[in-house]
């Protein structure tokens, strides 16, 4: 099997966050070609598995290979290499080294020459301790791409828009974390010393050898063709998949007023979706079934009846949809009552199944279908539920956040804060960075006028006493 095939398989495993197979396949691919893309993917995989020596080897080798190739992607790969070095050193608590590498990643993103002697690693005192402070790191934004505050003599040489703005912001955030960690280290700690150089020494051999994947021999061209154009999987016959396997993956959370249920599927067509609310049930469809791709609109299996754990107010409930998620926000009929579970899904639906029971034995009446998202909300809906926040801009309504795809990064607890920072103005970003760093992560402000002239004190939660690192 060719190195190209192994490289393709390695990158496919990397996309799936299958770190072990990423390393195994790329080990074989890199025997014949030192591709910076493959090296950086393997570096990331080693970092995730805490193989830091191997990860550092790949980051440094990727830097040199990218510089030697001089292709259109070389600067991007060199920026990534320096950033990967910074991440590895940060995880090793070598915060001085981490800050230097993050700064060099920023410099490359600004369009500066790779060999420029900026003297970052020379910022040490008589004891060899790194002297750059958190405040200096936060204020170091003069070269930010798109900021237009470079000296006149540099504006002619550097592009104001480099195309690497996101890479610069990422390294800038890492610097604040590294310098915050540096501040907390004991005076003689190893992590306070600088042990790195801007141009890393080119590694001569691989540090760690992982087991090779067990792959059957096959013709290279045929194998690559199968990878690039895989044969379709067999489709199950209609009606052959049991209802239990057709059910949507679901998750829910609740407040005193509402229950929010998210259903996950692929290729949801919002324009075709219909949602109908009743007092103790919800009907939705048509929805795609991953386990049964033969299902189409009009089939019994294309619809679901959701039997709810408690009653709701149909007229005050709402829904939204993206290609990967359907979200229902159900208004509780009895506020304050905690639902043990959201309910259960039944495949198929009928009018008699959905309609609420009429009083006095009258014939049930089906509710009108809700075929689109409500465009207007009442004052009560827009005001609640609002939760406490330290933000100067007021409380956040967490149910009004934009819908996002259900991938691993966005499920992470830090995703909201990353999005908040990304969408903020430069002045708000400065306020967020200053307040977060100075308060040791206990306060976050977006009001620069409030925080620029004072030190933001640590504000521990009630019942918690803030202590210094050495106490």
UniProtKB/TrEMBL annotation:
Ranges of compositional bias, category Low complexity: 358-372
UniProt-annotated stretches for the region Disordered:
205-242, 358-407, 443-471
Q: Record's SUPFAM superfamilies?
A: HSP20-like chaperones, TPR-like
- InterPro entries registered for this protein in UniProt: CS_dom, HSP20-like_chaperone, SGS_dom, Sgt1-like, TPR-like_helical_dom_sf
The UniProt record lists the SGS domain at 386-471
Instruction: Cite the GO molecular-function annotations of the record.
Output: protein-folding chaperone binding
Residues of the CS domain: 245-343
Q: Span of the secretion signal?
A: none
> What protein family is recorded?
Belongs to the SGT1 family.
What protein name does the entry list? SGS domain-containing protein
Provide the species name: Cercophora newfieldiana
């Amino acid at each position: 099997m060719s190195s190209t095939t192994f490289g393709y398989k390695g990158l496919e495993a990397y996309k799936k966050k299958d770190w072990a197979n990423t390393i195994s396949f790329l080990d074989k691919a890199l025997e014949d070609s030192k591709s910076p893309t493959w090296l950086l993917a393997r570096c990331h995989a080693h970092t995730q598995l805490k193989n830091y020596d191997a990860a550092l080897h790949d980051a440094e080798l990727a830097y040199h290979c990218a510089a030697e190739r001089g292709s259109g992607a070389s600067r991007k790969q060199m920026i990534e290499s320096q950033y990967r070095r910074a991440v590895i050193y940060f995880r090793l608590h070598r915060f001085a080294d981490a800050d230097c590498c993050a700064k060099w990643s920023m410099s490359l993103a600004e369009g500066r020459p790779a060999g420029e002697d900026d003297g970052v690693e020379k910022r040490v005192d008589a004891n060899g301790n790194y002297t750059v402070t958190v405040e200096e790191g936060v204020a170091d934004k003069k070269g930010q791409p798109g900021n237009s505050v470079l000296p006149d003599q540099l504006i002619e040489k550097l592009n104001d828009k480099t195309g690497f703005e996101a890479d610069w912001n990422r390294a800038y955030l890492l610097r604040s974390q590294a310098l915050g960690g540096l501040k907390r280290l004991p005076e003689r700690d190893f992590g306070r010393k600088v042990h790195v150089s801007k141009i890393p020494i080119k590694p001569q051999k691989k540090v760690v050898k992982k087991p090779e994947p067990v792959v059957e021999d096959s013709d290279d061209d045929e194998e690559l063709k199968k990878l690039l154009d895989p044969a379709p999987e067999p489709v199950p016959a209609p009606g052959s998949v049991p209802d239990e396997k057709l059910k949507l993956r679901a998750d829910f959370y609740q407040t005193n007023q509402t229950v929010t249920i998210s259903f996950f599927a692929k290729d949801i067509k919002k324009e075709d979706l219909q949602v109908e609310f009743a007092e103790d049930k919800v009907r939705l469809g048509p929805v795609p079934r991953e386990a049964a791709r033969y299902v189409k609109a009009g089939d019994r299996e294309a619809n679901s009846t959701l039997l709810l754990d408690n009653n709701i107010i149909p007229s005050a409930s709402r829904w939204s949809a993206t290609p990967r998620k359907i979200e229902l926000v159900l208004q509780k009929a009895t506020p304050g009552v905690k639902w043990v579970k959201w309910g259960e899904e039944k495949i198929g639906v009928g009018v008699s199944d959905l309609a609420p029971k009429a009083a006095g034995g009258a014939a049930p009446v089906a509710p009108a279908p809700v075929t689109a998202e409500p465009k207007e909300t009442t004052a009560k809906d827009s005001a609640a539920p609002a939760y406490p926040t330290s933000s100067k801009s007021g409380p956040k309504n967490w149910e009004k956040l934009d819908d996002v795809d259900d991938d691993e990064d966005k499920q992470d607890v830090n995703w909201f804060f990353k999005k908040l920072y990304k969408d903020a103005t430069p002045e708000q970003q400065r306020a967020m960075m200053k307040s977060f760093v100075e308060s040791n992560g206990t306060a976050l402000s977006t009001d620069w006028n409030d925080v620029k002239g004072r030190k933001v004190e640590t504000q521990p939660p009630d019942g918690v006493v803030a202590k210094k690192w050495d106490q």
